[in-house]
Write a structure and sequence with these properties.
505 residues, alpha/beta, Rossmann fold, 2 domains, 6-stranded mixed beta sheet, two-stranded antiparallel sheet, 19 helices, 8 strands
């Protein structure tokens, strides 16, 4: 068999290599498996560190010696924590209308130097220098699991009303538990002989974790709504900028100019939705959501206005202030016919002395009281009114606003709180039950109250919450007038046959 018939390519005769050639100077390329061996080893060590730190979270007796230490592992765990933070911020804000905020990075990553300092301090106090490297990796691993747990709590709050009500308390649970786990791990690794020493190290380790979080503004995020980045405080879109403030007059004017006048001979619904507290976007979301539901049910889209305060979206809507509401009611009164009906929806925090909170830091706005609201409506000359108040202690608005041509609906009685005011949520509990569920189904303000109040009572009983006891007043005049109102489908809104004026339940 000749060399060409062997099935393998024949070897070419090699010429003598030139000592000065590139082939002689360049080292042979390492095989691909060797090229990525270091990366694979680092990732396997990362997996080991995550499993070991997960055992620490569960308070299992996993020795810290199982951890893989070194700068590479600290960098990988740090990058993983930043990725988790960024992913959650992206989920909260959304890709559209958002932007990265690199100036928030020092605050968001403040836990890392704090963890390194606490690891060094504990190792120094225990006179065990080798302990610092293990505690640092343990702290970084626990930080990753804390981010995962915090995200799960937020996801659950978005989907479960019971979790949403307790979100402010539950949001601290992952951090507190990781502080506990870090303290337990430090005590077990230190192996101190005296009980007093072990308690001291435990308290010190937990305190260092908690204090590092308390020193950081929780509103700082890596991905934020457009115009609200830390470096945008002086931008034209910032809530405190002069441009935003002076643009409000024209913004409200344009919104009022878009409201169409009522048709003669037809009873129509005009709506104003008012989101008072700008610190939490749930009130902006709820005001916009209620406006959309009423527009769909009662065909009021050309007769609607949304006033809402928002730190994140200061130029999205006209500010919700008492003076803006006064101007809006006066304008609507000019556009309405005498048979038309105003639906005014108010959503915000409420106080025990029956003030609706109107707030947008750094501005100082006047709160809205039921007496002030009654005066605004009377001065505007709007006769037929449906007023819906979603706030704690909202029942305090019922008696001052009640009248024969008025319906007043309150999310709670005068002495009780309502629930669900979580930042970022679409609805409060009452808003979801009343607008999203009941009004869209019944096409009746009064009928929706019956459905919503029943559902709210059932949910509160299931979750062992104190009853909010929603309230309603229905005057005989407004009931008769509402029966003339046509829905988008052309049908009449039906009410249970009940004579006489309403009463306070």
């Amino acid at each position: 068999m000749t060399p060409g018939e062997s099935g393998a390519p024949p070897e070419e005769s090699a010429a003598p290599a030139d000592p000065g050639s590139a082939a002689t100077l360049a080292p042979p390329a390492p095989p691909r498996s060797a090229r990525y061996a270091g990366l694979a080893q680092a990732l396997r060590a990362l997996g080991t560190n995550l499993r070991t730190s997960a055992a620490l979270v569960l308070l299992l007796r996993r020795p810290l010696a199982d951890l893989r230490t070194g700068p590479v592992q600290l960098c990988l765990l740090f990058a993983l924590r930043l990725l988790l933070d960024f992913s959650f911020d992206l989920y909260s804000v959304g890709m559209q209308g958002g932007q990265a905020d690199p100036l928030a990075l020092p605050a968001v990553a403040f836990w890392a130097p704090a963890a390194l300092f606490s690891s060094w301090l504990i190792a120094t106090l225990c006179v065990r220098a080798e302990l610092a490297a293990y505690l640092a990796v343990a702290a970084f691993g626990l930080a990753c699991w804390e981010a995962c747990a915090s995200a799960l709590v937020a996801f659950a709050a978005d989907r479960l009303p019971g979790v949403a009500r307790l979100y402010d308390e539950l949001a601290w649970a992952p951090l507190a538990w990781c502080a506990l786990a870090y303290g337990v791990a430090a005590v077990r690794a230190a192996q101190l002989p005296r009980r007093r020493q072990r308690i001291g190290i435990f308290l010190l380790a937990g305190a260092l974790v908690l204090l590092s979080a308390l020193c950081v503004d929780p509103s700082l995020r890596l991905w934020v709504p457009a115009g609200s980045a830390a470096g945008d405080a002086d931008s034209p879109d910032a809530v405190q900028s002069e441009q935003t403030l002076y643009a409000q007059y024209d913004l409200l004017g344009d919104a009022l100019d878009a409201i169409s006048p009522g048709q003669d001979g037809v009873t129509e619904l005009f709506t104003v939705s008012f989101g008072g507290d700008g610190a939490q976007d749930v009130f902006l979301n709820e005001a916009a959501g209620a406006d959309a539901v009423m527009a769909e049910v009662f065909d009021s889209g050309e007769h609607s206005l949304v006033l809402a305060n928002s730190q994140a979206h200061p130029q999205e809507r006209p500010f919700a202030t008492v003076s803006a509401l006064q101007r809006a009611l006066a304008t609507l009164a000019e556009r309405m016919n005498e048979d038309d009906i105003l639906a005014l929806f108010l959503t915000s925090h409420g106080t025990a002395d029956h003030h609706l909170v109107v707030s947008l830091p750094p501005y100082h706005f006047e709160d809205l009281t039921p007496e002030r609201l009654r005066a605004l409506l009377d001065d505007a000359g709007i006769r037929y009114r449906v007023i819906i108040v979603s706030a704690c202690y909202a029942g305090g608005f019922v008696a001052p606003l009640a009248g024969p041509d008025t319906m007043v609906i309150a999310a709670s009685d005068a002495d009780s709180t309502s629930f669900g005011c979580r930042d970022g949520a679409q609805w409060t509990d009452f808003g979801r039950a009343y607008f999203a569920e009941a009004l869209a189904q019944s096409a009746s303000f009064e009928g929706a109250f019956r459905i919503a109040s029943r559902r709210i009572a059932e949910r509160e009983a299931q979750e062992h919450l104190p009853p909010s006891s929603p309230q309603i007043w229905v005057g005989s005049g407004i009931r008769n007038q509402l029966q003339r109102l046509e829905t988008r489908s052309g049908g009449k809104i039906l009410f249970a046959a009940r004579s006489g004026a309403g009463r306070f339940p």
